[in-house]
Specification:
Length: about 350
């Protein structure tokens, strides 16, 4: 259960420099108890560095990390109530599954009987109890990751940090493990901080997502908020696909693109004074004819090509400014065929034109 009030992990004005290089810039994050929180962004954006500072393997150059309200800057990793699951499993190869999972409890000198029942309980949670006596090299990648999860959870940490735990797995196994993780997180009610560069994974697993680029936090929000209301052009382009049209605001809801497209946006924007903004329109929000009278925005474009994806198809157009515009249609959505070079009017509603800052494009 997510506790809205209490931050279990908090980063306050955290910066991290490696020599002259600033890997994290003035990062503020507040992660609630019990939530599945993902940090997503392209390679090198600072995801692992953030995780290491929470775990205590690395330290902030400026600012502080708080765990359950207490500054953790001087608390060593082994004294933090935080465990980490890595991409490469990190199981002990010479120990059985049972001994691997029992290891953290043996270190703490927990009585033998209790160890046995807790190991079985942990392995059951990840459906690995039939594999007690196997050694790690007799397990598949997905099975190893399940054992690693059982081992990380057995000492009941407050926070489980997961650093791209599924990235070594193939597509189908990855999907299966996503279901396991989501289910497990609800069952154990432990805060998960999940790092991934896969935006689809972050959208499907998380209660909230932080999107980062070049050490800068661009947005934090629920998957719906991040997808439906991206705040920067980078977020709009990185989370799902988006048509970004550059221009300026000429009033709170009146956008004019550099190529002269005029569009109504229905949100009261605080960017009306900005000389440069984008509107972001998702490909599935565009129509080749007006569905109803709300489709007041018209974008004239030229058809380029169609790409078939099975359940849906993607049509590419080019607008007057030369920007490629993607339009996504469900397979049976009255699919009209266009010929290359044909002029087509595309329509969208004001509420589907989200004003975003140019920042980080
Ligand atoms: N020990 C270090 N010394 C110098 N630079 C470092 C060090 N660790 C990380 N960096 C740099 O800091 C930046 C952020 O690295 P980090 O590993 O946090 O990125 P990431 O988002 O986790 O990337 P990836 O998805 O590729 O793992 C990168 O530019 C990286 O080269």
């Amino acid at each position: 259960m997510i506790n809205q009030e209490q931050a279990v992990v908090e980063l306050r004005q955290v910066s991290k420099r490696f020599g002259n290089y600033e890997a994290i810039k003035d990062l503020n994050l507040s992660i609630r108890r019990g939530e599945f929180f993902s940090v997503v962004g392209p390679s090198g954006c600072g995801k692992t560095t953030t995780l290491k500072m929470i775990a205590g393997f690395d330290h902030a150059t400026e600012g502080a990390v708080y765990l359950s309200g207490t500054s953790a800057n001087h608390i060593p990793p082994y004294k933090r109530n935080v465990n980490t699951v890595f991409q490469n499993y990190a199981l002990f190869p010479h120990m059985t599954v049972y001994d691997n999972v029992a290891y953290p409890l043996k270190l703490r000198k927990v009585p033998k009987n209790e160890i046995r029942s807790r190991v079985i309980e942990s392995l059951k949670m990840v459906s690995m109890d039939p594999f007690l006596d196997r050694s790690p090299n007799q397990l598949s990648g997905g099975q190893k990751q399940r054992v690693a999860l059982a081992r990380a959870l057995i000492s009941k940490p407050e926070v489980l940090l997961l650093d791209e735990p599924l990235s070594a797995l193939d597509f189908h196994l990855r999907q299966e493990m996503q279901r396991v993780l989501k289910h497990l997180q609800r069952e154990v009610d432990i805060t998960f901080v999940y790092i991934t560069h896969d935006q689809g994974e972050a959208l499907s697993l998380s209660d909230r997502i932080a999107v980062m680029k070049n050490g800068v936090l661009h947005q934090v929000g629920s998957p719906e908020e991040i997808y439906e209301m991206p705040q920067t052009s980078f977020v709009a382009g990185f989370i799902g696909k988006s048509n970004l049209i550059k221009g300026r605001m000429e009033g709170p809801t009146r956008f004019v693109s550099d190529a002269g497209l005029q569009a109504m946006t229905n949100e009261a924007s605080n960017l009306s004074g900005e000389p440069h903004v984008y509107i972001s329109v998702r490909p599935e929000k565009l129509r080749t004819s007006k569905d109803d009278e709300r489709y007041v925005n018209r974008l004239s474009a030229v058809f380029v090509e169609e790409t078939y994806y099975g359940a849906d198809r993607e049509l590419t157009f080019r607008e007057a400014g030369g920007t490629h515009i993607l339009l996504k249609q469900q397979k049976d959505d009255g699919n009209v065929k266009f010929s290359e070079g044909e002029s087509v009017d595309l329509f969208f509603r004001p509420e589907d034109a989200v004003i975003v800052k140019e920042w980080g494009s």
